[in-house]
Amino acid sequence: MNLRLNALRAKMAEMNLDAIYVNSAENHLYMSGVDNPDGHLVITKEKAYVFADFRYIEAARADAREGFEVCLPGKPTLNEVVRDCNIKNFGYEDRRMTCSSLAGLKKTLDGMGVEFCPIGGIFTEIRSIKTPDEVASVEAAQRIAEGAFAHILKVINYNMTETEVAAELEYYMKKNGSEKPSFDTIAVSGTASARPHGVPRPVKLEKGFLTMDYGAVVNGYHSDMTRTIVIGKADEEITRLYNTVLAAQCAAIDAITEGAKNADMDKIARDLIDNAGYKGYFGHSLGHGVGLEIHEQPGVSGGMGDTTLKAGQIITVEPGIYIEGKYGCRIEDMVLITPGGKRNLTNCPKELIEI
């Protein structure tokens, strides 16, 4: 039994869809088990097709989950599938498909009486609740990222550049089982640490904060962590700022539980930072979901209204303080929501470290 197909078909029934055309790489992998960025799926009420060209056909036949028929393009044709499965209401990934791709799909099926229906967030909703296997993959990626942090603390020196720090983290992760970096690694020091998504520079590490935000990928699943250390000696203000961020993060993690409001978690961390005298210096949301993509549902921000945390979701908790032209600090863990509670998936030191 393919539980993912069952869940999707239940959503299709709610939307009165006869089939869904899947073109995004992440949803292709999630549904079929086949990692093919150039392929597509057609999932009907009773059948499911993986269309893979010659480059991917052998892998598709080996990896496709139960319930999927693997086909070369044109064998059968999309028109034949639409005709044989009596597809009239055809869902498409409006959040992922380009206008030109949709136009091409419509042209292919012109004259067949098909109505194209945007599916919105069907996949993001299903994917937000992780299975034990998905959690295990995220945890495996996180263990690799944690190893990279321990490694960088051993090799870092004042003559290294930010780009070298980023490269060293990524090299370690690749050598130890990561398929690729979760995203472009952030390693920014000194005044550049005030940029939450700063780009590593080919300059020697500046004194003050060094923020490293990075992750590994295992079985397509991402990890995400941030650790900030100090290059040189931490003065009183650096220490106070760091401890404020850490206290905000710990307070939010302590409050996280199934059924808690996402917005309330953000408010807990934000209020603590504001009340410490840093109001206006925490400019992004508290966190986001993590899985096959580095940013998934659910969001953890003040704008989430009455949305509540659900068991099986994995979220980041990453408050920060950024003072333009001076420095910035962020600390990030990943937390799994469990029935009636939570479990921190990140097992990495958070005390202030001076190099």
Can you walk me through this structure?
With 355 residues, this protein is of the alpha+beta class. It has 2 domains: 3-126, Creatine Amidinohydrolase, Chain A, domain 1, CATH 3.40.350.10; 132-344, Creatine Amidinohydrolase (Alpha-Beta Complex). Helix content is 35%, strand content 21%. The strands form 6 sheets. It has a 6-stranded mixed sheet. It has a 3-stranded antiparallel sheet with strand order 7-8-11, with helices on one face. The relative contact order is 0.11. The model has no long low-confidence stretch (mean pLDDT 97).
Relevant terms:
Creatine Amidinohydrolase, Chain A, domain 1; alpha+beta; 355 residues; 18 strands; single chain; 35% helix; 6-stranded mixed sheet; Creatine Amidinohydrolase; 2 domains
Please count the beta strands (DSSP E, at least 2 residues each). Answer: 18
Q: What is the CATH C level class of the largest domain, in words?
A: Alpha Beta
In terms of structural class, how would the helical and strand content be classed? alpha+beta
Give, in order, the helices and strands: HEHEEHEHEHEHHHEEEEEHHEEEEEEE
* SS summary, helix count: 10
Tell me the Rg in angstroms.
23 Å
Overall residue-averaged pLDDT value: 97
State the separation between the terminal residues, measured CA to CA: 53 Å
Overall 3D form: elongated
What's the helical proportion of residues? 25-40%
Strand coverage percent? 15-25%
- The CATH superfamily label of the largest domain reads Creatinase/methionine aminopeptidase superfamily
In this structure, how is the largest beta sheet organized? Answer: 6 strands, mixed
- So, CATH architecture of the largest domain? Alpha-Beta Complex
Widest β-sheet, arrangement of strands: 4-3-2-1-5-6
The number of domains is 2
Poorly predicted regions are: none
CATH topology of the largest domain: Creatine Amidinohydrolase
